[in-house]
Design goal:
The complex is a heterodimer of chains A (295) and B (321). Chain A is an alpha/beta fold and 295 residues long. Helix content of chain A is 36%, strand content 22%. Chain B folds into two domains: 17-66; 81-320, Orthogonal Bundle (MetI-like fold), CATH 1.10.3720.10. In chain B, 72% of the residues lie in helices and 1% in strands. Chain B is built from eleven helices and two strands; from the N terminus they run ααββααααααααα. Chain B has helices at 17-55, 58-61, 81-112, 115-130, 133-159, 176-200, 204-212, 217-246, 249-254, 273-280, 286-320, and strands spanning 65-66, 77-78. Classes of the chains: A alpha/beta (295), B mainly alpha (321).
């Protein structure tokens, strides 16, 4: 386990974006500090005392967390601890599950996204989501898949070809598909499909991106490509990623939040800089989990 | 390769008595129903063979149906072209009218209706399927006939520049249009239930993807659910078509049987194969009876083909889900 913490410490020193040969937006990265995770009402995404229920089942209890802008926050914890539930709360996908309920506040740039005046489709446009299983629309071509978002959300696009190339490039897929944009989205490999789904989410130019175990169905090579994509994207947007893979959390995230359920509702045990979570966690249960003693 | 030295072992499964009895019973049932189907086909072929031999291909292409005079001065002449065309025309009208309704009802039940509406409405739809067709026929004859004649008249006055909305005489009752409307009502339950089944299997993760991109419910339905259900829906429509092709009593009661190929759907003339058989059966000469058997065989084969295609399409849609 020390291995991955060392690995992360290295990528701390050589910033991941610089490895890619890109100049970084510096502010948040140089200023990485566990205090950033405290609820402070500043811009970006923030949750306050959030609970979630499915029918009578209390799935998540009293979570408060701030996601610093232009960083990657990893949500880790064993299955059933409420990570995915928490993630879906952040862009109002939670309410699509029958009998789902919530309490608390989710603030996006200071605005409560669950207040009645807010149009949830508008929120989902600004906070994109990538799911566990690659889910391109099978009835659409690669190009149509990327442009599906603006079409669904009724956003006018000035230059479709430019947007298409831009999104696919940022998702790291352009070179592989530029000659077959008219092929079906489901003709791609699993890893390519997932990057297509990322490109599709980017087409709406979201301010934040939520990823729910985006690599769990992918082979190691594709996983690496998706991780590179995530690190690149974090220069311009806030990213929250649920992952079961500790190495992945160590590789891509700046901050980590550890969730755990002790039979009752899932709770946030602690949130800290990823380096601290892996090398010097504040809670014994976190140490046990990241070192593979349970979960 | 030294496979010559290797002896492949035979895998023997010893079955218990109960298992053997059960297998026999199942196999008997399956074979019995299949052989019944084959028996019906061969009975119709056997009884109608003479007519096929006498008239050949003109049995399908001629519209003339004449049982001939008893003294043999006027020879009998049998052709079911008018009835076949009538069957197809009424069935197509039925499916054209029923399909949009079926899609709306299925989408409403599956994606919009709260469960306290969904359950009773589904039950009512199943009940509609259980109404005997003679009841539809009587209702069609007494009520729909006059009601729809008014609609037919309006259609004719607005659209008579389209050839199939023209009429030879201003009589609008007992037309293929009205028979088609009645059939539409009769096939609505089966078409809706197939549509509902395919729509309900639309993959949740793709619907989530549509929502996740800021799509509305209608957006998700249009970009995911409807493309997903398209082939299954075609199958459902064809199942309805098969039913409409074979319908007898209702068509017999609302449609004027005329032995002339009629594509003017508002005109008071038409018929279908099934109602031809029902009309002529009781007073047919022995030779005409053979003609009716032959007509029955043609209808049997057409509906069998339509239903088989439909089942194939529905199954394929189910498997790709």
């Amino acid at each position: 386990m020390n291995e991955s913490s060392i690995q992360k410490t290295e990528s701390e020193m050589i910033l991941p974006g610089i490895q890619q040969g890109v100049t970084m937006a510096t502010e948040d990265h140089t200023n990485r500090n566990a205090d950033n995770l405290q609820v402070n009402g500043s811009t970006g995404l923030e949750v306050r005392n959030v609970h979630a229920w499915f029918n009578k089942h209390h799935a998540l209890a009293d979570v408060s967390l701030h996601f610093p802008q232009n960083t990657v926050t990893g949500l880790i914890g064993p299955s059933g601890c409420g990570k995915s539930t928490f993630l879906r709360l952040l862009n109002r996908m939670h309410e699509f599950i029958p009998k789902a309920a919530m309490a608390g506040e989710v603030l996006f740039n200071g605005e409560d996204i669950y207040s009645p005046e807010v149009d949830p489709t508008e929120i989902r446009k600004r906070i994109g989501m990538v799911f566990q299983k690659p889910n391109p629309f099978p009835s659409m071509t690669i190009a149509e898949n990327v442009l599906a978002g603006p079409k669904l959300a009724k956003v006018k696009v000035e230059n479709k070809d430019e947007l298409l190339e831009d999104c696919l490039t940022r998702a790291g897929l352009w070179k592989e598909v530029k000659d077959r944009l008219k092929a079906s989205g489901s003709s791609l490999s699993g890893g390519q499909q997932q990057r297509l789904c990322i490109a599709r989410a980017l087409a709406l130019n979201p301010e934040a991106l939520l990823l729910d175990e985006p690599c769990s169905a992918l082979d190691p090579g594709s996983t690496l490509r998706v991780e590179e994509t995530i690190v690149q994207l974090s220069q311009t947007m806030t990213i929250v990623i649920v992952t079961h893979n500790m190495q992945q959390a160590a590789r891509v995230s700046d901050y980590c939040a550890f969730f755990l359920s002790d039979g009752g509702p899932g709770q946030l045990v602690e949130a800290d800089l990823t380096t601290n979570i892996f090398s010097n966690p504040g809670d014994q249960r976190t140490a046990d989990y990241v070192q593979g003693r349970f979960g | 390769m030294e496979s010559t030295d290797l002896k492949q072992r035979e895998i023997v499964i010893r079955r218990g008595l109960a298992d053997r009895i059960f297998r026999r019973a199942m196999a008997t049932g399956a074979i019995l129903s299949l052989s019944l189907l084959a028996l019906i086909a061969s009975f119709l072929l056997f009884r109608g063979f003479e007519v096929f031999r006498d008239f050949g291909f003109s049995f399908i292409t001629s519209a003339k149906w004449d049982s001939g005079s008893a003294d043999g001065v006027t020879p009998a002449s049998f052709g079911i072209a008018a009835m076949l065309v009538g069957s197809v025309v009424t069935a197509i009208i039925a499916i054209t009218v029923a399909l949009p309704f079926a899609i709306c009802v299925a989408l409403f039940l599956e994606y919009y209706a709260p469960s306290f509406i969904r359950k009773p409405l589904t039950a009512v739809l199943d009940l509609v399927a259980a109404i005997p067709s003679v009841i539809y026929g009587i209702w069609g004859y007494t009520i729909l006939n006059n009601l729809a004649a008014g609609w037919a008249k309006s259609l004719n006055s607005w659209f008579d520049w389209i050839w199939f909305f023209k009429v030879p005489a201003p009589i609008f009752t007992r037309s293929p249009f009205i028979a088609g409307l009645l059939l539409a009502l009769m096939i609505l339950p089966i078409t809706t239930s197939v549509a509902r089944e395919v729509y309900s299997q639309a993959p949740r993760d793709q619907i989530d993807a549509a929502y996740g991109l800021g799509g509305t419910k209608w957006g998700a339905i249009r970009s995911v659910v409807m493309p997903f259900g398209r082939s299954g829906l075609v199958g459902g429509a064809m199942l309805g078509l098969g039913r409409a092709l074979g319908e007898t009593v209702a068509v017999y009661l609302v449609l004027n049987l005329v032995f002339k190929i009629n594509l003017q759907i508002l005109a008071s003339a038409g018929g279908n194969v099934a109602s031809l058989i029902a009309t002529r059966f009781s007073e047919a000469t022995p030779y005409e009876l053979k003609g009716l058997m032959a007509a029955g065989l043609v209808l049997f084969l057409v509906t069998l083909a339509v239903n088989a295609t439909a089942t194939l399409i529905v199954n394929r849609a189910r498997n790709t889900a």
